[in-house]
Amino acid sequence: MTPLPPPLEQWFSARGWQMHLHQQAMLERARDPATLLIAPTGGGKTLAGFLPTLVELVTGVHTGFHTLYISPLKALAADIRRNLTGPIAEMHLPIRIEDRTGDTSAHTKRRQRADPPHIMLTTPESLALLTSYEDAPRIFAGLKRVVVDEIHALAESKRGDQLMLSLSRLQALCPDMRRVGLSATVEDPPALARFLADGSARCEILMADPDPDPDITMLETTEPPPWAGSGAAYAIPAVLEQIQRHRSTLIFHNTRAQAEIFFHNLWLANENELPIAIHHGSLDRTQRARVEAAILRGELRAIVCTGTLDLGLDWGDVDLVIQVGAPKNVKRLVQRIGRANHRYNAPSKALLVPANQFEVVECRAALEAMMAHDLDGAPRGPGPRDVLCQHILIRACSGPFSTEELYAEVVRAGPYTNLTRSDFDACVDFCATGGYALRAYDQWRRLQQRADRLWQLRDPRAARLIRMNIGTIQDTDTLKVRMRRAKGGKPLGEIEEAFAATLVPGDTFLIGGQVVRFESLREMVVEVSRDAGRKPRIATFMGTKFATSTQLSKRILRILTEPDWPDLPHHTRAWLHQQRAVSQMPQSGRLLIESFTHEGLEHACIYGFAGRNAMQTLGLLVTKRMEETGLAPLGFVATDYATLIWGLEPLKDAEALLDAKVLRDGLERWLMSNAVMKRTFRASATIAGLIQRNQLHARKSGRQATLSSDILYDTLAKYDPRHLLLEITRQEAMRGLVDFGRIEEMLARISDRITLCRLTKVSPLAAPLLLEAGRIPVQGAAQARLVAEESARLMRAAGLAN
Amino acid sequence: MNSYTFTLAGAGLSALASGALYWPERNLLCVSDLHFGKSERRARLGEPPLPPYETRDTLTRLESDLRRTGATTVICLGDSFDDALAAHALPEAERLWIARFQAGRRWVWITGNHDPGPLELSGTYLAELSSPPLAFRHMAKIGQSGEISGHYHPKARLALKGSSFSRPAFLIDSDRVILPAYGTYTGGLWSDDDTLSGLMRAEAIAVLTGPMVHALPMPRSRAHRSGRS
Questions:
Q1: Of B138, B131, B101, nearest to B116 (Cα)?
Q2: What pairs with residue A593 in β-bridges?
Q3: Which of A477, A529, A787 is the best mutation test for B, with the most CBs of B within 10 A?
Q4: Fewest 10 Å CB contacts: which of A386, A447, A563, A596?
Q5: What is the DSSP string of A496-508?
Q6: Contact call for A707 and B52, based on CB within 8 A
Q7: Which of A433, A440, A504 is the closest to B91 by Cβ?
Q8: Is this model's pTM higher than 0.90 or not?
Q9: CA nearest to B187 within chain A
Q10: Measured between alpha carbons, how far is residue A516 from residues A539, A541, A751, A757, B222 in Å?
Q11: Is the residue at B146 inside a domain?
Q12: SS3 A701
């Protein structure tokens, strides 16, 4: 057993503490090239990651940079600094520890480059920026260890891919650098270990003892949940009662809009005036900070929140977690529930609140999956090339490079081990010239090759622009919202620009729990006034909704095909029996389509269970096909389990519509011109450096960025359809918003087995879709008519019509 | 034809869905803000290399408008080139393409702020062109009437149920027309910007371009909602 050096040993024993087994194991493995520690929330994970560093620094022999700590959140880096600084001071250790994030002052940043601390706490983006400096080799000289916190969260996004590329760069600068990853429970630890490892080097996996199973139940009310919707207003009295009975409750929602609406309703019903606050990513920073401080002081009885509270920040004494709305993903549910009783080895207490009848089944499926420790997750596929393009530009900023060496470095990053040389070269070519089939303005290439075959920036001044645009986070363009006052009123938060564009003066919406009235849009700021009305006229934020995971969808299908449902509330049970009586139950290996007439329109309901995004894409593809074959579709709406289409003609031949080849052709032929694909393109083009979010002078307004990226997309699709960025866009369309991969998965599962059921009226499972928000009109003829009608109406109203 | 017809200072005009303005009586086609060579200029300034197809794309659309109208006079209302160097760097094929358009036509390049002086392409270079009752210039001047100008790249939006629809647009009132930008890589200025709302009369309309033209009362800024008297 590796003994602790005296100061640490004394510190532990003075508190009557003992090292956890996994903390001990981390010390034993301190010399390993890479280690992945998987431990539940509150398991002393962070200390386990830092112990080897403290041991190595205790003697004061090491000078300069020793350990780099990376977390997905700035706030987490600051949190960890505070938590480490205390013990380090108490033990009188000769260790300097600092954070470096977007919030660090320019002065401090400069000093840190000249004289790095022993331990630096930072984020993937700040690290990428550090590696872009010409003096990077000097800054990182002596670096021994890297600790990646919450690596499970980073590995799910491009931020993680970028981080692994940065680590490969660091490894080249500091060959004996060792890596540690700290992770919450994940479904595939070996995949995460490969993600973290340096090329084919070893990465051991350490599993700490798991948490005891949580005490988790589904809220059952006598009043049944509504058929559709996501507000869960029916559950407000029951939730208030739970808040009364606990010290501190976290109430998670899947979207900001849901959180806003729920908080509003909760507040209206809060007769005892319990201190309850709301916290989500769109609120103004000062407001968020105020809520965070109140949480830490234990002043709040409940916080209504979204994913911003998901990660490892310490929120103190939470003894109940409520999840409103079906958890679309079991892994996220497990991590959220870990927020309660943030103590090692104590069972967490949690309550699921289904927002509608179908979510009762979803919640049941999630409960079963949790108890079976069956976590969901999809393999992420090869490292995205847009991130690689940005990495190449970052590398160019730090000085001339050889493509041979850079390629060798890149394929040592876990996500890029299978990258071919020709794919790599295409990315270099894109960075250098744009990679267009038409070779134009060749003398103005961004990267050029010197006589010694090294590549460099043609114009070294370009480095500044590249640095300003580092990062892979694609926050949607948002506008600040503030109260209208003579001298600029109180900032309230942000709303999406696309949402703001639909507002007309007088519209009311919710933000930060209050109803406000839209007044005007001035210089990219939305001005609002207070509104006494209790009911907002339109929903907040459009937002993206999570799609139910593949694994959870399978479980739901399995539950639906059971002969009876004694565990479900009686109203849900009766609803499902009714479905079986008038139609059929959807099955995993067969696609059920119901067709019926309702209010004079023909309807078709496709039970694909492929998740919201894929079901929406399916709706786009199928309605397009229906339009071509004269079925005159008028619109559709998609949920996680089904797509409902309405139109003028009944559906008679389902096989032809759902033919895999037809759908794939549709994706290639015309979905490419869809707005969702353009959004996917915009994200990749921004990451790859074709579009710059930040300009030297002012931030380009989001509106203009939208316009120009759409034009660039159309131009490429027309004149250069095989361009690298379009290839990347097609690849991205397999997941995310388009999620075509889930349609493929569904087609493989049903393999041509389709049941078309003609009903005399709407079925119980289809009925909720009639009430579902987010109906999408079929583009083309219908929209043109709408625009023509609306402009004619306005002309008449203004007295300008002929 | 897919267009919006109206009268300015007694001249019958058509705002085409493509963003060009046609004057049938003179068989005259007017386009504004072509911004040829924008991607070349951006690359030269060290910005990311944009797809170099915008000149081609703009010329393709211009060709189709020339064929459809059979116009014998063409007026390019300024900012035809992103800058003088961009005009110089125009590839041979695109230069010849323009020369083919010019054959048998009267061709006027109005100078703009991006392309202030005469360039090496043939055609007549003018700061303004007076063709009574109309006057063609790059940038609108307050107090003029019968004026055709460009420069601002106006666009307008229409709020539909729960979504919004926006397009480059002609702005038209009884004094002037401001043309939308015709070039492929051109951003735009909202009609409700103070500058545009200040220039246009209260009864101004916006004609949205695109697959179909749509005329609507010009959306304007709050400060100018009551309109210029």
A1: B138
A2: A606, A756
A3: A787
A4: A563
A5: EHHHHTT--TT-E
A6: no
A7: A440
A8: no
A9: A704
A10: 12, 14, 51, 47, 19
A11: yes
A12: coil
Q: Domain tally for chain B? A: 1
Q: Which of A427, A436, A444 to mutate to test the interface with B (most CBs of B within 10 A)?
A: A444
Cβ atoms of A109 and A100 closer than 8 Å: yes
A583: buried, middle or exposed (CB in 10 Å: 19+, 13-18, 0-12)?
Answer: buried
Is B1 at the interface with chain A, CB within 8 A? no
Backbone angles phi, psi at B8, to 5 degrees: -130, 125
Strands A302-305 and A249-252: parallel
* Residues A6-21: tens digit of each pLDDT: 888 998 898 888 888 8
Residue B229 falls inside a structural domain: no
A441, B208: Cβ pair inside 8 Å? no
Residue labelled with tokens 């744009």: A434
DSSP-derived 3-state class of residue A321: strand
- Chain A residue numbers touching B53 (CB-CB < 8 A): 436, 438, 715-716, 718-720
pLDDT in tens, A446-474: 999 999 999 999 998 899 999 999 998 87
> Angle CA(A376)–CA(A378)–CA(A381) in degrees, nearest 5?
160
- As beta bridge partners, residue B178 has B149, B171
Q: Does B75 reside within a domain? A: yes
Residue B91 contacts A, CB cutoff 8 Å? yes
- Would you say A351 and A320 are in contact if contact means Cβ atoms under 8 Å apart? yes
**Most confident residue range from A7-21, A707-721, B16-30:** B16-30
Residue B213: inside a domain: yes
* Cβ neighbours, 10 Å, residue A519: 17
| Residue positions counted in chain B | 229
How far is residue A580's CA from residue A603's CA, in Å, rounded to a whole number? 19
The residue ranking higher by pLDDT, B187 or B34, is: B34
For residue A157, give the nearest of A610, A615, A735 by alpha carbon: A735
Domain containing residue B188: CATH number: 3.60.21
Contacts of A669 (CB under 8 A, 6+ apart): none
Evaluate whether B15 touches B3 at the Cβ level (below 8 Å). Answer: yes
Model confidence at A736, pLDDT cuts 50, 70, 90, reads confident
Confidence class of residue A279 from pLDDT cuts 50, 70 and 90? confident
The answer to whether the CB of A27 falls within 8 A of the CB of A35 is no
Length of chain A: 802
Ramachandran category for residue A283: left, alpha or beta (phi over 0 → left; psi -120 to 50 → alpha): beta
Q: Is the CB of B48 less than 8 angstroms away from the CB of A723?
A: no
Which of A658, A664, A662 shows the shortest CA–CA distance to A740? A664
Annotate A400-466 with DSSP letters as a single string.
Answer: -B-HHHHHHHHTTBGGGTT--HHHHHHHHHHHHH---SS--SGGG-SEEE-TTS-EEESSTTHHHHH
Question: CB distance B203–A798 less than 8 Å?
Answer: yes
DSSP assignments along A235-297, one per residue: GHHHHHHHHHHSS-EEEE-SSHHHHHHHHHHHHHH-TT---EEEE-TTB-HHHHHHHHHHHHT
Nearest alpha-carbon partner for B173 in B140, B151, B127: B140
> Residue B215: which H helix or E strand, with range?
strand B214-217
Q: What is the mean pLDDT of chain A?
A: 86
